[in-house]
């Protein structure tokens, strides 16, 4: 029927904000209209930050923001602002810094109370609507804060000013005196030791529970192995990374029927996930599994790469080439259900599986059905296989989350089958389940397209295309990069935009006032363009990457304290200008910027970029030496900075078979400290204009010839693939 309430969020593009457009709360988007109202009416601001696939955000909306009574309290005493954290990571970061500093924790939904001049003084995350035994209710908090503002306004204002000053001091990251980049061996060894101590020997990963697919840890371990491959520590680093990736792929965090990876595991075993699927995880994991394949040659890892990219191509791709942000954890169990449940789209009862897989299996023990084989292999139990302790709301009672409990060999032996035949049978089962699942109501799809996350996914496709020699993946990466240039880049200003949206009739829409790109957008897109150049050898991507690097320097560099700010200067609505200091679900932008700057210097000859990379490391030096486990991507970059990147130059016709053979050699070897370029003899081309030394490199005996250069000084020419492979080791 017709909604009873409609607020200003109805005019927004963000799927998260639109989810709240019919709340009885008089929500405003973040902007001047709300700020002016708070000042004019001398009201406090209630700021609620979340994202469209956030389970607890949905819970708080159902319990509190849809309540007419609570809505009336909010509208009477506060100016209420809703923010999509994925659209505005700058606003999210400022107030999350406050919530973490004052409560010792953080998360979403984030609930913060601000003075009319946007200074925070109280905050938390999820609040239940009413008081409970252990928690004060949202209604009570609202009324108490409203009373405080009425009775103790001056004290609140004074307190908010003190809090802001303290946050400004504690969150400042700057170079101390004449500090230089930290010693790489010490940083790398300490980071390895800290990861090794937190490693789960049985199930992989780096905590007991919850367990996140933290790609930055795996990337660090691969690099540590590459630099220490003949030592016991190097061998352990590789074992930790490969075991973690295998256990994740076998686990319930991996969607065995619909492909791709869920957000995180609620338990130690990678079994019961939080079911949302995020684009940034798919992009980074595609890259990590590609590296695992490069290093090990094990097709298992290549198959997981194909699985992830199939999911993204099918379910997270816009027809214009961009990638959507996420799929929700919650959905309706059936078409007639009135209430969504977490994981409903993905879980199974034993009864359902028996009905879908009744066929007898030829050659197996008598009476064995497909269902018997499938249920044994994927740990299905009659009463469900989810630990009630991991299901506090009983949403998964009687259900099964598929997890590969056995190897193919063990399951095959159990039923007297050949492993090869078993693989085909399981594949047939998964396809049947996929067809059955397609009849269920799908989870909500967040069709917002973000420059940063699209950058991470382009890197995933480009690196997979190079490592697996799959040209189709490189083409998909190029299509997405073209999408970015068309829809998330302003050619007049030369700047990136943060977001765009799927509109009506599958068009691509932009906000009335487009959101300008943040540091993370530049960093991840530049990284993607370097990866795409190395996979495609199209020099236009390189040219655009270097242009964006210049723009990033202009907008975000801190000339006094060094490193990059996360946001531009000059936004009066941001009470803090911060630098992220922790690699998490995504690497912090300054971590990736170090490697980007080193690559940019190698492709352009601009040595001031090398200098900037060193200045970032100097600004983070203390943190890198004490707790590098919080910055594994930057710790990795520390080694790259001191090692000096190798410029691998192939002189030859890119279409020639001898050139292709050399390129395949370079791409099939995991060598973290290299950049790849092809000198094709076109002296008017972009690379030759950037790097005059290329003109002096020639083919030997008319064959494709490789040179491995360091600081633009080159080795003797090499025409043998075997010799080249030997030179690629760090």
UniProtKB/TrEMBL annotation:
| All copies of domain Spermatogenesis-associated protein 20-like TRX, residue ranges | 6-167
Q: Name one Pfam family in it.
A: Thioredox_DsbH
Which InterPro entries did the record assign?
Answer: 6-hairpin_glycosidase_sf, 6hp_glycosidase-like_sf, Ssp411, Ssp411-like_TRX, Thioredoxin-like_sf
What GO biological process terms are annotated to this protein in UniProt?
carbohydrate metabolic process
Where in this chain does the entry annotate a coiled-coil region?
A: none
Domain of life according to the entry: Eukaryota
Give the signal peptide range. Answer: none
Instruction: Spell out the protein name for this chain.
Output: SPT20 protein
Q: What taxonomic lineage is listed for the species of origin?
A: Eukaryota, Metazoa, Chordata, Craniata, Vertebrata
The primary gene name is Spata20
């Amino acid at each position: 029927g017709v909604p009873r309430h409609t607020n200003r969020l109805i005019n927004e593009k963000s799927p998260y904000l639109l989810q709240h457009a019919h709340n009885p709360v008089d929500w405003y988007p973040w902007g001047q209209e709300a700020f002016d109202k708070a000042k004019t009416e001398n009201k406090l601001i209630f700021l609620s930050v979340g994202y469209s696939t956030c389970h607890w955000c949905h819970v708080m909306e159902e319990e509190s923001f849809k309540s007419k009574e609570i809505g009336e309290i909010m509208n009477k005493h506060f100016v209420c602002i809703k923010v999509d954290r994925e659209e505005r990571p700058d606003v999210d970061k400022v107030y999350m810094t406050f919530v973490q500093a004052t409560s010792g924790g953080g998360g979403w939904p984030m609930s913060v109370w601000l003075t009319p001049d946007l200074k925070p003084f109280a905050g938390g995350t999820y609040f239940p609507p009413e008081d409970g035994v252990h928690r004060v209710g949202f209604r009570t908090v609202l009324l108490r804060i409203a009373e405080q503002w009425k009775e103790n306004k001056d004290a609140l204002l004074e307190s908010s000013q003190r809090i802001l000053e303290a946050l400004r001091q504690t969150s400042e990251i700057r170079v101390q005196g004449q500090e230089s980049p930290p010693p790489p061996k010490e940083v790398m060894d300490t980071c390895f030791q800290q990861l090794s101590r937190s490693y789960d020997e049985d199930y992989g990963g780096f905590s007991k529970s919850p367990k996140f697919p933290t790609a930055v840890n795996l990337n660090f371990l691969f690099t540590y192995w590459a630099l220490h491959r003949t030592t016991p520590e190097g061998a352990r680093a590789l074992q930790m990374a490969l075991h973690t990736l295998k256990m994740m792929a076998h686990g319930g965090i991996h969607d065995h029927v619909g492909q791709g990876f869920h957000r995180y595991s609620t338990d130690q075993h990678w079994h019961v996930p939080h079911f949302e699927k995020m684009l940034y995880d798919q992009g980074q994991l595609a890259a990590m599994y590609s590296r695992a394949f490069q290093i090990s040659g094990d097709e298992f890892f290549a198959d997981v790469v194909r699985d992830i990219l199939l999911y993204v191509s099918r379910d997270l791709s816009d027809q214009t080439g961009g990638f959507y942000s996420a799929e929700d954890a919650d959905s309706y169990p059936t078409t007639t259900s009135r209430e969504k449940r977490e994981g409903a789209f993905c879980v199974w009862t034993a009864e359902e599986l028996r009905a879908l897989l009744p066929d007898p299996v030829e050659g197996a023990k008598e009476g064995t059905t497909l269902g018997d084989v499938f249920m044994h292999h994927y740990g299905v139990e009659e009463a469900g296989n989810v630990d009630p302790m991991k299901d506090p709301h009983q949403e998964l009672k009687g259900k099964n989350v598929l997890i590969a409990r056995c190897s193919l060999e063990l399951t095959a032996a159990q039923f007297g089958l050949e492993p090869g035949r078993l693989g085909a049978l399981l594949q047939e089962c998964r396809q049947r389940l996929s067809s059955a699942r397609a009849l269920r109501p799908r989870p909500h799809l967040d069709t917002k397209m973000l420059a940063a996350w699209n950058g991470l996914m382009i890197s995933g496709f480009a690196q997979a295309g190079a490592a697996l020699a799959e040209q189709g993946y490189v083409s998909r990466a190029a299509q997405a990069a073209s999408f970015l240039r068309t829809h998330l880049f302003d050619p007049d200003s030369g700047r990136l935009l943060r977001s765009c949206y799927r509109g009506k009739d599958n068009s691509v829409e932009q906000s009335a006032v487009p959101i300008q790109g943040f540091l993370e957008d530049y960093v991840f897109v530049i990284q993607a363009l370097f990866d795409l150049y190395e996979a495609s050898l199209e020099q236009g991507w390189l040219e655009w990457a270097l242009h964006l690097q210049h723009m990033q320097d202009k907008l975000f560099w801190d000339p006094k304290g060094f490193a990059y700010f996360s946001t531009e200067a000059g936004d009066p609505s941001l009470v803090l200008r911060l630098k992220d200091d922790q690699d998490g679900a995504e690497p912090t932008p300054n971590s990736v910027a170090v490697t980007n700057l080193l690559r940019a210097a190698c492709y352009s000859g601009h040595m001031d970029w090398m200098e900037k990379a060193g200045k970032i490391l100097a600004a983070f030096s203390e943190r890198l030496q004490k707790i590098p486990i919080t910055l594994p991507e930057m710790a990795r970059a520390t080694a790259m900075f001191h090692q000096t990147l190798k410029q691998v130059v192939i002189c030859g016709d890119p279409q020639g078979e001898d050139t292709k053979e050399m390129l395949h050699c370079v791409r099939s070897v995991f060598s973290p400290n290299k950049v790849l370029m092809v000198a094709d003899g076109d002296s008017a081309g972009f690379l030759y204009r950037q790097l005059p030394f290329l003109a002096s490199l020639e083919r030997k005996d008319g064959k494709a010839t490789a040179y491995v250069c360091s600081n633009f000084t080159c080795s003797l020419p090499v025409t043998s693939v075997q010799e080249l492979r030997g030179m690629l080791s760090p």
